Amino acid sequence: MVRTGLTPGGGGGSESGDDEACGGWPGRVEPELRGGPDQLRPPREAKADPGVKLNPGDLLETLRMVWRASPRHTLVYAVTSLTGSALPAANLYVGKLLLDEVARAAQGNVTYAALLTLLAVQVGLTVLGSLLSTFQSAAQQLLGDSLQHAVSRRILDKAAGMSVESFENADTYDKLQQAYREVGTRPLGVALQLIGLIGAVVTLVSVGALIAQLGVWVLPLILLASLPGVWVSNRFGVENYRMLRWQTHDARVQNYLGSLLTSDTLVKEVRLFGFEPYLLSRWREYYLGFRRQLEDIVRRRAAWGFGASLVSALLIGLASALILRRAADGMISVGDFSVFILGIAQVQGTVSGFLNGLSGIYQNLLYMRNLFGFLELPDRDLDAGEVWKGPIHTIEFEGVGFRYPLTDRDVLNGVNFTVRRGQALALVGENGAGKTTIVKLLTRLFEPTAGRILLNGLDATRFSPRSVQREMSIIFQDFGQYQMTVQDNVAIAEVARLEDVAGVEQAIGRAGAAYVDTLPEGLGTRLGRLFQGGRQLSGGQWQRLALARLYFRDASVLVFDEPTAALDARAEFETMEALRGQARERITFLISHRFSTVRLADFIIVLEGGVVTEAGSHAELLARDGKYAALYHLQASGYASDAARPEPAGAGPKP
Ligand SMILES: Nc1ncnc2c1ncn2[C@@H]1O[C@H](COP(=O)(O)OP(=O)(O)OP(=O)(O)O)[C@@H](O)[C@H]1O
C-alpha cells in the first residue's frame, strides 16, 4: 500500500506562479490515486477552462479569514503600510526644497543652518521609512504563519468530517489538492494586495499632486505609459492559472507515478518486475506535456512584454520632451525637474503596483475559489440523528441494495438476512461478489441505496452513524499500519482510553500478539519504517496488532474482513478458536476465503454478483450440494491431493 498523504504547498506569487507549472514528483506530495490504469492516460493539452469564475463573496470571506487568523498582525501591517505610502511624496517634496535651496545658496541667499534643517527632515523620513518597513515585514511574516496554520486546520477539519463516500471520488482528490496548494500565500496575498491598493492610491494622489504642478499633460502621459505592461502581466497571469488548473489531474497522475518509485512498500515489486524505466518514461511524458504548455506561455508573454515596454518608453520620451521644453523656457526650477525625473519612476511603479494589485487580487481570488470549493463540499454529519445507546442484539438486512456513487451498476441487490447476538455470520463469495460492501453498509460508512438495515428492530438511519459505529469494532482487509507506538496502534480504537495500558495488554493477549514482549521498548516501541527508530513488523504481526485494536474496543458487533489472510496456519487456528470463545456475547461478521475458517460460523451467506444465492449452516449448505458445497470441496480436494501426492525424489528435510 502506498501511504502517501498531503502536505501544504506554497501558492507561488500572485502574478505568475510559474514555479508550479512543471510541478510533479519530487516536490509535491500528492494524494494516492484511486482507480485503475485507465486513469493513467497521457497528459492532456491545455485548453480554455470554462470553470474560471469569480465569486464576489470570496473577497469578503478571504479578508475575514485573514483577520481571524491574527487581528493584531493584520492591524500592524495595515497601519505601517498605509503610513509608509505617504512617504514617497514627502521625500520628493523635501528633495525638491533641498535642491532649490542649494540653487539659491549658490547665489548666497541661504544659510548653512537652513540647509542642515532640510537635510535633517530628509534623514528623519528615511529613518521613519525603515522603522515602518521593519514592523511591516515582521507583521507580514507572523500573519502568514498564523494564516497557514488556520487554513490548514480548516482543510483538515473539513477532510475529517467528509464521508468515506467522498473519498471514493477522484474529483474530491483534485479539489483537496487544489485547496492545499492555496494554503501558502493566496489568502495573505489578497489581504496584502488590498492594503497595497489603498496605499497606492495614497501615494498616487500625493505624488500626482506634486507632478500635476509641472503641467496638465505630464501626469496623464506617465499614467498611460504604465498600462501596457500591466495589461500583459494580467493577461498571462490568468492564462497561467487556467493552465495550472487544467493540469491538476495530470499532476496527480505524475506524482502517483513518482510515488511508485519512492514507495518503501512497493520497492520489492517494482524491482522484481523491473518496470522502473516504464514508470520513469511515463513520469517524464507528463513533465514534457507540462513543459510544452509552459514554453508556449513564456514565449508569448515575452513577446507581448517587449511590445509593452516599447510603447511605454515612447510615452515617457514624449513626456520628457514636453517638460524639457518648459525647462528651456525657464519655467521650472531644478527642484521641479527633480520631482519630474524621480516622480516618473514613482508614479510608474505605483500605477503598475496598483493595477498588478488589482489583477493579483483577481487571480488570487480565483485560486481561493478552489479552496472555498473544497470547503463547501457537502459534509456528512456523523452525529446527525438519535444517539444509539446500549449493545446491538440483532441486525437485519431487508432487501438491501447498493450502487457506488458515480457508477451505473448495483453491486448489491435485495440482500436479506438476520443475525443475532451470540451468532457468527460468515460471508462467502468470489472476488467482487459484494462482501466488503455489505460490511461498509453494516458499519454505516455508506447508506444503502435500496432497502433498509434494522438494528434491534429499529431503522438504522434514525441513529447517528457515529453512535452506531461506537458499538462496532472491525478489522479491515486493508487494515491500518500506523507509524506510531504499539500502545497507540491498539488504543487508537478508543482514544478516550489511550493511556489504558492494562486494556492494551489484554487485547494484545487475546489477539495472540505475544511478540510485542520481545520488542525493545515493549508497548512503547515505535513501529514502521517511516520514522527514525521505527521497528518494522511482518504482515502477520501487523495483522495481529490490528486484531488487538479490534478487541480493545468494547463493542457488541465484531467484523472480521479477511482476518487471517496474513496469518500462518497455527495463528489462524488459534485466532479462530479464540474468536469462537470470545464472540458469544456479541454478533460476529466474518469474511473469509478459507473454508476452514468459514465453517466455524453459525450461519453462512453465499453471495454471487451482489445477490444472496445460498444461506444456512455449514452442514446445511453441504447437504444442499450447491455453490458452497462445490467451493468447499474444491478447497478441501486441494488439501487432500497435496496429502496424497507422492514426495518427489530427493525432497524432504536436508540433513
Ligand atoms: N469504491 C468503489 N466504487 C465503485 N465500485 C466499487 C467500489 N468498491 C467496490 N466496488 C465494486 O463493488 C463490487 C463489490 O466489491 P466488494 O469489495 O464488496 O467485493 P468483495 O466480495 O469484498 O471482494 P473481495 O473478495 O475481492 O474482497 C465489485 O464489483 C467492485 O468492483
The CATH homologous superfamily of the domain at 390-471 and 557-613 is called P-loop containing nucleotide triphosphate hydrolases
Nearest-integer average pLDDT: 82
Beta-strand residue percentage? 5-15%
Broad CATH class of the domain at 390-471 and 557-613: Alpha Beta
First-residue to last-residue Cα separation: 40 Å
Radius of gyration: 35 Å
Number of beta strands:
10
Question: Which architecture of the domain at 390-471 and 557-613 does the CATH hierarchy give at level 2?
Answer: 3-Layer(aba) Sandwich
What is the helix content?
55-70%
The distinct ligands, each listed once, are: adenosine-5'-triphosphate
Descriptive notes:
It is a multi-pass membrane protein. Its main location: membrane. It comes from Deinococcus ficus. Residues 1-52 are annotated as: Disordered. Keywords: ATP-binding, Membrane, Nucleotide-binding, Transmembrane, Transmembrane helix. With 655 residues, the chain is of the alpha/beta class. Among the domains are: 390-471 and 557-613, P-loop containing nucleotide triphosphate hydrolases (Rossmann fold, 3-Layer(aba) Sandwich); 479-554, no CATH class. Helix content is 57%, strand content 9%. The protein is built from 20 helices and 10 strands. The chain has a 6-stranded mixed β-sheet, with helices on both faces. A hairpin with a 2-residue loop joins β9 and β10 (611-616). α3 runs parallel beside α7 (186-212) and α8 packs antiparallel against α10 (276-328). The longest helix is centred in the middle third of the chain and has 53 residues, at 276-328. Adenosine-5'-triphosphate is lined by residues 168, 404, 407, 411, 429, 431-437, 477. The site of adenosine-5'-triphosphate has 13 residues, from α12.
